[in-house]
Amino acid sequence: MKNLRYLIPITLILIAVLAPIRSLAQNDNQEPPLKPIRIDKAALSGIGLKPVQLENEPDRKFFQRRLLRGVDLSVFIVSSESWTTQMNNFPIDEVVLMLNGKAKINPEKGNEMTFQSNQFFFIPKGYTGSWEIQAGKNYHYELSIISTDRAESADPTKTLPELIDQDELSGININLNSAEQYEKVLTKGSELTVSLKAEKPTQREISTPMKEQLVNLLSGQLTITDTSGEEHVFNTGDFFLFPKGFQGSWQSRGHGLLKYLVIEKTT
After folding, report:
1. Shared domain check, 219 and 130
2. Does 24 fall in a domain?
3. What's the pLDDT tens digit per position in 20-55?
4. CA distance to 53, 238, 262, per residue, from 56 (Å)
5. How many domains does the chain contain in total?
6. Is 177 in the same domain as 144?
């Protein structure tokens, strides 16, 4: 018993040393905060594309780079020489932003359509017809957004490709509601939904976990702060992904209006 008075201080020292270690271990086991994912501008410029040999078109010069694979959405840069592909029951919904070159789409049932550089267009699951890439003596390239998982069936009412309405994207039809916000679905397929949203500059908390969304900021500036306090600033022209379950805060700025395109999985 004569050593008991030494045992008590030693025990207290051990508690003092081990407590922060245990705390650090608990912190190490915590999930890192979700952060918005910026789409690499170098990739959008056509940098870093790798050649891919297509099984059904082995002679075609084709390039691809996957930019991200989320829970609901996958994003690619795709490039090709001038080429015409015949499609029969296209297996996916796809949203395309043509970055260089143009596409001439000739449906089996419907009128021929041409999509130019800097235009968004939508190809529905189930499309049948030709798809001609025109790039002159160079390569076309495009931003391609698809759903990560496939829907069981196509929407029978949506069988033709369509241009995302340029007037809508320009913002000339925007009328804010009483909450000084605007939202309009521009197209909706069996797998993907494309919407235009706008608001007066504001600040708010994102307290409800978000759906996964790919955002293209069309005008204004957006500052997103994640739960760790890190700020992520996006300006006109930027693309970024809100990961599924994201929470944090939102501050929009702009010359009277923040306007953005949202692509998400159809629910």
Report:
1. no
2. no
3. 545 444 455 677 899 999 999 999 999 999 999 999
4. 9, 35, 33
5. 2
6. no
